[in-house]
Amino acid sequence: MRHKESSIGTALRSGFLAILLLAGSTLAAGPKGQVLYRFQSGSDGNYPLASMIADKAGNLYGTTYFGGGSGNCTSGCGTVFQLSPPSKSGGPWTETVIYSFQGGDDGANPEAPLIADKAGNLYGTTSAGGNGNCDDVNMTGCGTVFELRRAAKPGAAWTETVLYSFQGVPSGQGNGDAAWPNGLVFDKAGNLYGMAYDGGYCYTDETGTYCYGAAFELKKRSGGAWSEKVICRFDGPNGAPASAIFDKAGNLYGTAAWGAYGFGFVFRLEPPKRQGGAWREDSIYNFQGESDGAFPQFGLVFDKAGNLYGASLGPGYGYSNIFELSPNQGGTWSESVLYSFTEISNGYVPTVGPILGKNGNLYDTTSEGGQFGKGVVFDLVPPGTQGGAWTENVLYSFDGGSDGFAPYGGLNFGKGGALYGTTPSGGNMTCGNGNGCGTVFTVVP
Q1: Distance between CA atoms of 430 and 314, rounded to whole angstroms?
Q2: Residues 402, 27: contact at Cβ < 8 Å?
Q3: Dihedral sign of CA atoms 228, 113, 303, 255 in order
């Protein structure tokens, strides 16, 4: 429940706020990097926290946690924005807010990545708002799943529709709906699946209410309505599931907190073998907090061979790892640490998992470290045919200036293979906390 948030949810939100409150300035504009947009703290939004997606024309789409100039939220309830490339080489990119959240039934404070259907319509989640019975720091509602339908004519307004409002667990006890959703993924049939940090199974004692999160599905019914079903409720001490991704067989994977050793785990949800049956949850790897790492971060990616890649905090939590999980015969999985961040100049503390390039390299960001200590964009190059270690290259070091710093939401590829990302801080320094309003940047590998 949001008004008495679980210890897992509290820890996650504390970590998120710590990133937002980092002191400093921006990112070093090297020969391969460029700042495309600096948020202005007004109706254009501020604090972008998620990776962006691109369309075939090269437009970028993303969200901001605050801003928008409307609603009953402090500093605005967040936005969905479009960033369009210049018509002439070297010109400025153009930012357009395609929706400003009002903080009521329509949702508030989006913090997870968007996804798009084949028609170019956008889908996403808000961490708060909606009509559910949750309340946390003056934000009402348990979060929503929304659709933004592309305008029929160029320049016309997009249309926002709330597909589902999460209800949490109003009694604070037992099984209930999800709350605080953190992302979406389509299955092959066009149904939506996702994870939620809160809700699911809850219990209450004299110290408060503790909820462990859930996985959910949304199916489109005849007439256009969507119906929601919780497919897995996590229970203590495991919880706060995230990072939804499907394999080729239709199994759903994610990351979660705690696990067998208390350092987090990666899990698989197998769909029911018959209609109406239950999904089955298996832990495929439990982190031990030693050389294998601890606390897997948001975001997983598959390669063509079915191996999973992600990021975790490292031993003692001071550094971090990029890891690989490989399936074995018999259903077990093996974990390998591909790279450990042990030198501050190489960056450390990735806040999300990497993405996979066509060349087999892994690309990601760190929120700290680098030449100036403000985070980096990097790639990992796989070993050659003769074996050996993965090699890290720092592609971009943030310097704490006007370009943004501490990238948070990860990367995505756009037109031409360029990398695009956001920083929640830096850029225009007019936002209320003095850390800046955030930026959108690009790096050409």
Answers
A1: 35
A2: no
A3: negative
Summarised one tens digit per residue, pLDDT across range 87-133 is: 888 899 999 999 999 999 999 999 999 999 999 999 999 999 999 88
Contact 81, 97 (CB under 8 A): yes
* Of 259, 263, 253, 268, nearest in space to 292 by CA: 263
2-26+47-327+339-347, what's its fold? Neuraminidase (2.120.10)
Look at the block and give the residue holding tokens 């946390």: 136
Where in the chain are the domains?
A: 2-26+47-327+339-347
Burial letters for 112-126: b for 16+ Cβ neighbours within 10 Å, e otherwise?
Answer: bbbbbeeeeebbbbb
Q: Determine the longest span between alpha carbons in the chain, in angstroms.
A: 63
Contact 427, 50 (CB under 8 A): no
- With 0.90 as the threshold, say if the pTM is over it: yes
DSSP 53-72: EE-TTS-EEEEESB-SS-SS
Residue-wise pLDDT tens digits, 67-99 = 997 777 877 899 999 999 998 888 999 999 999
